Amino acid sequence: MKKVILLLCVxxxxxxxxxxxxxxxxxxxxxxxxxxxxASVQALKDQSFVIEADRINFKRGRFVYVTAxxxxxxxxxxxxxxxMAFNSSYAGPNGIGGITVxxxxxxxxxxxxxxxxVTYSMMVQGAAVSANVLINLPKGTNQCSATVxxxxxxxxxxxxxxxxxxxxxxxxxxxxx
Length: 177
Description:
This protein has 177 residues and is α+β, with helices and mostly antiparallel strands. The protein has helices at 2-16, 23-46; strands spanning 48-57, 63-65, 72-76, 79-85, 98-112, 118-125, 130-137, 143-150, 157-165. The chain has an 8-stranded antiparallel barrel. The longest helix is centred in the first third of the chain and has 24 residues, at 23-46. It is globular, with a radius of gyration of 20 Å.
């Protein structure tokens, strides 16, 4: 009998927290998310954006959660930076546990489908990088995924994270190769 009463109490407490979001709050959150999406699309058009990754996916389905301010893809005009930094005791070539490469952006293509999803592709070439970068930005959000495909190997890497205009981002760039 005590177990049944305890179960009923737990269930009733669980339901008291449901539905506390008012329609006005939902509408405000939706409007804010739409504003973030529009700012992200404009940043892509201006070629001044940063994708701060909170998860990196590797070729065969392995993934790792990472710190967003040290794992990013940044584009500023015709210059691009791709950085990965893992939380490890190894300092890596960039001094913060990973690798940082700089390159020049070319071949930029931006397309929007009928549903409003944005696909942005570019080529990044530099001293230590030659890769295609494909960014997918779903409609109504600034959450995106970016696939970096090197031209000389099949070691594809996916960055899952948030797209920000460059001036709104606070990333820490390590030493580049």
